[in-house]
Amino acid sequence: MIVIEKGAGKMAIPIFTVDAFADRPFRGNPAGVCLLEEPAEASWMQAVAREMNLSETAFLYREHDGFRLRWFTPLVEVELCGHATLASAHILWQEGVLLKEEEARFHTLSGLLTARRDGDWIEMNFPAKADEPVSIPEGLAEALWVKPIYVGKTVYDYLVEVDGEETVRAMSPDMKALRDIPARGFIVTSRARSGGFDFVSRFFAPAVGVDEDPVTGSAHSSLGPYWQRKLGKREFTAFQASERGGVIRVRVSEDRVFIAGQAVTVFKGVLAL
Predict the structure, then answer these.
(1) Residue 150's beta-bridge partner residues?
(2) Which pTM does this prediction carry?
(3) What's the pLDDT tens digit per position in 17-29?
(4) Distances (CA, A) of 129 to 80, 86, 126, 201, 255
(5) Non-local CB neighbours of 9 within 8 Å, separated by 6+ positions
(6) If we measure between CA atoms, which residue out of 248, 223, 222, 207 comes closest to residue 110?
(7) Is residue 95 annotated as a catalytic residue, yes or no?
(8) What share of the chain is helix, strand, coil (3-state, %, to 5)?
(9) 6 confidence band (pLDDT: 50, 70, 90)
(10) In angstroms, rounded to a whole number, what is the distance separating the alpha carbons of residues 112 and 47?
(11) How far apart are CA 116 and CA 50, in angstroms?
């Protein structure tokens, strides 16, 4: 059970590091989770995220029938983040803030997001962010060091399909060049050749302070609809092929995408402020 200690004008605020989209420590994508009693200044949350130096740190406090949830990279606040939402739901159940059978409800810049437990997995309900085909932006192929066979644009990111899993795994993009192309990030994907997976991907977002995100839940709100169009199916098992790697289950239902993963807490402490 969470206990927030106060005294002598100071407050010890609970904070965690959770490996999301992982079934054991030091895999998947680490996210910070900070539990607040009340709203905090954006500048303070940005400073904490910079101190945590993870791809995203989540901040949440009770609001209405759920929790207000905000996500910050070390540089900016973002409108949608999957792995830190997964991590936040995991902490609410782990720490007894929610009963295990309760749904987690998050009020965010992307509207209401929910999460529920399914055995050892957590399934999140996200808005679909389908892409539209676009011409290849100047410098993109050179920055990624790949030859795209398709380029699309979502509300946040470019989505690039390449010729195979080996190409995805071998990529070493020019981050400085990518930073100069206007977008939150760049999703690179292909059909999987590894057994048990439908598609693989990687995600690069140097403009928001994350050169490569190890496992990106929000990218799968675009990858789900994309591969639904390509493969004519609605349910997928995906692998994000970063160095840490992570398994994601994806289910597309009209304008929603259900994104599922596992999570492990690796650090628990307090901000002594």
Answers:
(1) 161
(2) 0.93
(3) 999 999 999 999 9
(4) 11, 18, 9, 16, 8
(5) none
(6) 222
(7) no
(8) 20, 40, 35
(9) low
(10) 26
(11) 29
